[in-house]
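Researcher: Go.
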Amino acid sequence: MVIRTFCLILLRIFEALLSLNLSIFFVLPTLLLLYVINSAARVGTSLRLRYCQGTKRVCLTNNGLDSIWGYKTNGNSRNVLNVVIYENQIDGIRYQRLFEERVLGKKNIKGEEVYNKLKKIFISFGGYYCWEEDLAFDIRNHVIITGEKVMGEEGLMELLGNLSEDMPSNHPQWQEVIVPAFQYDQRGQQPPVIRSIRILRFHHAYGDAGSWLLLYSHCMADGKIAHSVDPLKGYGMPSLEKYLYYASAIIFGSTTMIRNLWFGTNVRSNRLVTKKYSGRRSFAWTPPLDLQLLKDVKHQTKTSIPTVITCAIASALRRFDEIFSINKSVIGDIIDCGAVAAILPYPGLELTNRFTIANLSLPTSKGLTRVNRLTETHNSILHLTQSPEPILNFWTFSLFGLFPIFLQNFLMKSAGTSLVFSNLPGASRSFKLLGDKVESGGAWVPFLTCAGLTISAAGYRDSVRFCGASDNACMSKIQLQFILDTIVDEVNQMHQEINGAV
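Model: Structure:
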């Protein structure tokens, strides 16, 4: 054991020295040269824009994390979908009017429109991504009210499939779709409650989920949404710990980037990796799960709620692979999951992207008990949180997103994972939006590179709902629903086993 520890320390020292040498003599000089060349090219493109347009109506994107969502391949999806379910029916015309007044009309202390980005179209020009002002902007193109016919859950999932398609670039690529009459399919209510739902559909270039949550909190809830983690403050990491983490990212940056590049181009082959999207997608969700179950498992195993959820996902994928067996590449002992997280704090209320994604290895082998799988998942998450990969990927996307589109496409083609998971803690207490009380919600993330499955855990008050989407080239809707329902079952089984062992 002592010899093994000593060897690991020597290996780590060797990696640090190798990484620093690569950074000093190759990576940093190369990046500096590319940065200078790209800056000159961006200046030239800006002058061309000024000459062609004659005004400042079109400008280059200034956030690389916005630009990378311009990546387009056959059948992929760049839209985020968020559903808010109200306790009552809402007035769609009133919501449309108040959205224009409170959101689009909101100004900062300088008198500038905070959400002017919502009046701009995401386009490309001269080999770069740009924002173009929509001179014919009309709120009626963006806050849309459907018919009065009552929609059920199945109809909602079909509508989400349609809304996942790309939006045309003649107007800003976002919409709020209000369904005045909605009811759950099976709730045993006599008579069934009719309520309204609102679907936020937006191209990811406009911002991430945390940024939009800030918009709703400060424009529609008077800042009264009780965030599990305040996006404007962050996690409160001690300064010394933060500096040590950044120092580790700088020291081991080059070797970590090489590993990431190798992983992206050599993602483990399995049935979830979808090299060619069909462009047809299925959407599903589960009923809300009592958050106390997750908290009980977390406390009794001294892990975390994300650990419990990702362990349940790993177990669900194992059961899915065994029940829906196929002849092609199956799910092996480990599956690569792209874990999405936000880099906090956000700089302000403006819509922006502050996300990162890093590879999380999920233990999916057959022989593991639930407790053993939970332990391995905990170790995997602990390794990821100590790794420089999350912040390095954030820096990489921020930098290369400002480069020409062909270089961005090369970067995105070198990225890949089997599935994408996003944990959205949401609000810890009930809140109202423009006076209407929110009952529940859900969220679905895009398909960008080769992941055939995406899963989100959307928390609200004392519950969490699992939302999933899959490309039809990867699996059927029945299989997708099976995975989501099995995640819930695995959480319940873990809770029972651990309570029985105490």
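Model: The CA atoms of residues 256 and 476 lie 36 Å apart.
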